[in-house]
Every structure is written in structure tokens, then in C-alpha cells.
Design goal:
This protein has 5 helices and 4 strands, in the order αααααββββ. The protein is of the alpha+beta class. β2 and β3 (171-180) form a beta hairpin. The longest helix is centred in the first third of the chain and has 35 residues, at 2-36.
């Protein structure tokens, strides 16, 4: 009897561990399903829109230059923060002086205006789960051919999990989920592919 009880207990522990590990993947598919059905109420529970909006905006504005580390904090690093502010003022003065001295010099084109909210519609979020990356805001499911890509676990801890979806042309998109409660995981960050992450064309064997 004790042996049977021990076996049942072991099975329960294994099942609970398996459920805990697969919970972020289940949440990913929940997001994809809610996007397909335009279920805004469910998406509000599955996604921290403020965090995801901030993460996408930073990446879209950074473009190919990549994301820089946060600026020094005036509270924790007053010297660094002051130096950063002085550098910003010096750069602005230098730019203005250069334009005054060389009025005909080619000017840096302004960065395009990006509306990050176009990436947070159910259709665009669905595109992101399909690996559409920066093209997600123009994604059309009716034009997508083939089987939807399955997420792969790139990182897992007790509090955070990262899943990846790879598109052959665009690269790998990373979805970071954060645990809230025992098995509820919420999407808090979407990492778009960067140039160094994009798949490289295979060199034909010679």
C-alpha cells in the first residue's frame, strides 16, 4: 500500500513539474488564440501591455543601431548622469555650429515616425507570434502559408521564461513571460530580431 501511495505521489509531483514547465508555452498559445478570436479581455490578462509597448517602442526607434544601456541615474550615479547631460548639450551645440558653418552639408534625415500601437492590435500581435517581426503591423493571416511556427523554450526559471519563434527570412523573435501566481504567466517583453540574429543564407557546397 505504501509503495502504491509513493508511486502516486511521484506521478503527481512529475505531472505538477511538467505543468509548471509548460505553462509559459500554454500562455503563448493562449495569446495566439485570443488574437485570432479578437478577445481583447483575455489579451489584457495575458499581456502586460505597458511593458510590451515600452519594449517594442525602444527597439523600433533604435533601428539597426541597437538598444543602448539605460542612462546613468542621477540618484545612484550623479557624476555619470551629469556627464551624460553635459555630453548631450555639447552634441547639440556641436550640431548647431556645424549646420551654421556648413549650411550646405548633407543633413541627417529625421527618423521615421513609428506608431508602436499599430504593433499591439490583435492582428499585429498574432503576426508577432508567427515571426512577422517588424512587418507585424501589416500582417494578414489570410496571406500566411504553411504551418504556424511553434515556440521553443530558450530560457526558463522560477520567475521568468523566454520562448522564441524563428522566421526563415526575418530571424528570431523572443517572447519573455513573467510568472504571476502559481501557473499564470504574463507576456512582458517582445524582442524583435536584430541584424546579428537574422538567419544567414546557406553557402552551397562546392
Amino acid at each position: 500500500m505504501s509503495r502504491i501511495f509513493g508511486l502516486i505521489l511521484l506521478l503527481v509531483i512529475v505531472a505538477a513539474a511538467g505543468l509548471f514547465y509548460t505553462a509559459p508555452i500554454i500562455s503563448f498559445y493562449d495569446v495566439r488564440s485570443a488574437c485570432k478570436s479578437q478577445d481583447i479581455e483575455s489579451l489584457a490578462k495575458l499581456i502586460d501591455f505597458d511593458s510590451v509597448r515600452a519594449s517594442l517602442k525602444t527597439q523600433l526607434l533604435a533601428g539597426d543601431e541597437g538598444i543602448a544601456a539605460p542612462a546613468p541615474s542621477a540618484l545612484n550615479d550623479p557624476v555619470g548622469a551629469t556627464g551624460n547631460a553635459v555630453k548631450g548639450v555639447a552634441d547639440s551645440i556641436g550640431k548647431a555650429f556645424n549646420e551654421l558653418v556648413n549650411p550646405n552639408a548633407p543633413k541627417t534625415p529625421p527618423k521615421p515616425v513609428i506608431d508602436v500601437n499599430t504593433y499591439l492590435t490583435p492582428k499585429a500581435l498574432l503576426g508577432l507570434t508567427y515571426g512577422a517581426a517588424k512587418d507585424a503591423n501589416t500582417f494578414e493571416l489570410s496571406q500566411y502559408e504553411g504551418k504556424p511556427p511553434s515556440p521553443k523554450t530558450a530560457f526558463f526559471s522560477l520567475e521568468r521564461a523566454r520562448l522564441t519563434v524563428t522566421d526563415e527570412l526575418r530571424g528570431t523573435t523572443t517572447f519573455t513571460f513573467e510568472r504571476h501566481g502559481l501557473t499564470h504567466w504574463q507576456l512582458v517583453h517582445i524582442g524583435l530580431p536584430t541584424p546579428d540574429m537574422e538567419p544567414k543564407p546557406e553557402t552551397p557546397a562546392g
